[in-house]
Specification:
Layout: E1 3-8, H1 14-24, E2 28-31, H2 32-42, H3 45-56, H4 62-75, E3 81-84, H5 90-99, E4 104-109, H6 112-120, E5 122-125, E6 130-133, H7 160-183, E7 187-191, H8 195-209
Parallel strand pairs: 1-3, 1-4, 2-3, 4-7
Antiparallel strand pairs: 5-6
Helix pairs in contact: 1-8, 2-3, 4-5, 6-7
Bound molecules: P1-(5'-adenosyl)-P5-(5'-guanosyl) pentaphosphate and magnesium ion (MG).
Family: Belongs to the adenylate kinase family. AK3 subfamily.
EC number: 2.7.4.10
Region (Disordered): 134-157
């Protein structure tokens, strides 16, 4: 059973690269941020607790995250998956080790200044998690989702102050978490500034390590 995690700073392109991975490989994408946002929308008890942390660009407390992730991963017990947004610190990484064996941790390393410019232009379709950017991948009709035609929104945590806090939080936690996975020999880092340039390298690498039966072959026409 192939299982992988994608790590990277806020706005580094985890969602963008994940969407391409699941287009090319039969993995189930679990975006923890999307799961949390749907809890916030539904005003569940997890959502009510998470909302103020998320809006401020802080991490939701580990105890809540551990319960949420255990529940979500139990539902994916018999499928190969790609986990986006978890773990965010070494204690979450250790907890994940107790739930599941990982085959790969892929880390995106994109300079902060590039990220700050991208995030200003991000728009999302919240119900599906589809991601747009007014210059990189704009919607066909401005402000509307390509598939449903519904309104796009901006994330409350994409306000400049919260973005600054999210980037600092990420850089404080990055080194220990990367070291944790490097010691387990499952870490692979990709550095770059453009998802269109990073993804072909990611794909070539994944083709070598993801079992063939999970490769989605391109249609001939
Ligand atoms: P999230 O939702 O996991 P982040 O902050 O980790 O949020 P985010 O913001 O979702 O990560 P991303 O997925 O890495 O970023 O990036 P993306 O959306 O694909 O790309 C960003 C923008 O750039 C998009 O508009 C995209 O179109 C554009 N783009 C992509 N590539 C390019 C390019 O090459 N060029 C250009 N010009 N543009 C490009 O977590 C949210 C919050 O939930 C809580 C925390 O509060 C967190 O802050 N949370 C947790 N709390 C505790 N523990 C956990 N494990 C938690 N997980 C989530
Ligand atoms: Mg994301």
């Amino acid at each position: 059973m192939f299982r992988m995690v994608i790590l990277g700073a806020p706005g580094s392109g985890k969602g963008t690269i994940s969407n391409r991975i699941i287009r090319d490989f039969a993995l189930k994408h679990l975006s923890v941020g999307d799961v949390l946002r749907s809890h916030v929308n539904n005003k569940s008890s997890v959502g009510q607790e998470a909302e103020s942390y998320m809006k401020a660009g802080k991490l939701v407390p580990d105890a809540t995250m551990v319960k949420l992730i255990s529940y979500e991963l139990k539902r994916l017990d018999s499928v190969p998956w790609l986990l986006d947004g978890f773990p965010r610190n070494v204690s979450q990484a250790k907890m994940l080790t107790n739930i599941s064996k990982l085959d790969l941790v892929l880390s995106l390393d994109v300079p902060n200044q590039i990220i700050i410019d991208r995030i200003k232009e991000r728009w999302i379709h919240e119900p599906s998690g589809r991601i747009y950017n007014t210059s990189f991948n704009p919607p066909t009709v401005p402000g509307k989702d390509d598939v449903t035609g519904e309104k796009l929104t901006q994330r409350p945590d994409d306000a400049p102050e919260a973005v600054g806090r999210r980037l600092t939080l990420y850089s404080d936690n990055t080194k220990p978490i990367l070291e944790f996975y490097a010691e387990k020999h499952i870490l692979k880092e990709f550095r770059g500034t453009e998802s269109n340039e990073i993804y072909p390298r990611v794909k070539l690498f994944l083709e070598e390590i993801i079992p063939k039966e999970l490769h989605i072959l391109e249609k001939s026409n």
